[in-house]
Amino acid sequence: MDDEPVIISPMMKGPLGKDEVISKKGFVSSHVGKGLGVQRRSNQESSTVGSIVYKEVHGLQAAKRAIQNYKQLKEAGIPVAPVTKIIKRKEDGKDEYYIAMSDLTENDKYQVIEISDVSSQTGLFLDRDIQRRLLVSLAHMHNAGLVDFHPGLSIIIRREPNSGKVHDFVYIDYDNFGDQAFLSRAYHSHNEEKLRDLKTLITATSMPNNPDSLTEDEMWLVYKEAQQFPETQPLK
Ligand SMILES: Nc1ncnc2c1ncn2[C@@H]1O[C@H](COP(=O)(O)OP(=O)(O)O)[C@@H](O)[C@H]1O
Ligand SMILES: [Mg+2]
Predict the structure, then answer these.
(1) Domain 111-232 falls in which CATH fold?
(2) With 122 labelled, which of 5, 33, 143, 221 sits at a CA distance of 20 to 30 A?
């Protein structure tokens, strides 16, 4: 973790906060940070390096932890942003850190929707295949020892804006994840955290009015089958 390179990206030179705000949220609360939200800087110079999405992070340790989570998720085969880096900038003589990642909209080719907002989107339908892949990814993340300890689940669905077709899903917001050691949780409460993730995912992605999607019982089963440690199976 200590050898995590902190990069000074040429693309991130120039004033921050003048870029496009894509979300008013963004990592550090407005009490602590500068209130930049999540911003996107378009890359006009290179077509091979895409746009960069960045947000504030509270100090180097927090940034490193987010990157460590990112790497663990990636190693566990969870879909994550292709690139995520720590950016260091000198501001008023002080080192300030940001998390920068690939623009998952790919310059607005895709619309990104937080998993918790799926049910409020008209015409957004998740089929069995994507529901299944979401549940398996959650089980794999849990197998790797990580949970999303925040309320909600940091997953976005990407869909094509015109056809409305669902493309895929990607885990984001890597600061929201932690392992048992980081959370200093007892095994028991760590498992409750897993159960909470699972319930959140099922609630967010079940499509009760659609006969072509998984029922909630089927969803539990898909998760259980992909879970590595039988003793952590949630009781229903
Ligand atoms: N890499 C990205 N590419 C495109 N949009 C993103 C990216 N990261 C975040 N966003 C957008 O910003 C929103 C908030 O991002 P998130 O990292 O969850 O911030 P917060 O720390 O406020 O929860 C996401 O729901 C998404 O709309
Ligand atoms: Mg978030």
Answers:
(1) Transferase(Phosphotransferase); domain 1 (1.10.510)
(2) 221
Own/partner long-range contacts of 73-78 (Cβ < 8 Å, ≥24 apart): 73/141, 73/144, 73/146, 73/171, 73/174, 73/177, 75/144, 76/140, 76/141, 76/143, 76/144, 76/146, 77/137, 77/140, 78/137, 78/140, 78/141, 78/144, 78/171
If one looks up domain 6-102 in CATH, what number appears? Answer: 3.30.200
Q: Which tokens go with 40?
A: 């996107």
CA torsion sign for 90, 91, 93, 98 is negative
More confident site: 78 or 211:
78
Contact 100, 12 (CB under 8 A): yes
Whether 6-102 shares its CATH topology with 111-232 is answered no
In the block, tokens 């290179």 appear at 46
Mean pLDDT of 116-134: 94
Spacing, Cα 154 to ligand 2 middle (Å): 6
Q: How confident is the model over 63-69, as a mean pLDDT?
A: 95
Rounded Cα gap, residues 122 and 21, in angstroms: 24
Of 196, 189, 31, 212, the C-alpha closest to 131 is: 212
**What is the spatial distance between Cα 100 and Cα 82, in angstroms, rounded to a whole number?**
11
Name the residue with the closest Cα to ligand 1, atom 16.
173
* Alpha carbon of 176 to ligand 2 centroid (Å): 7
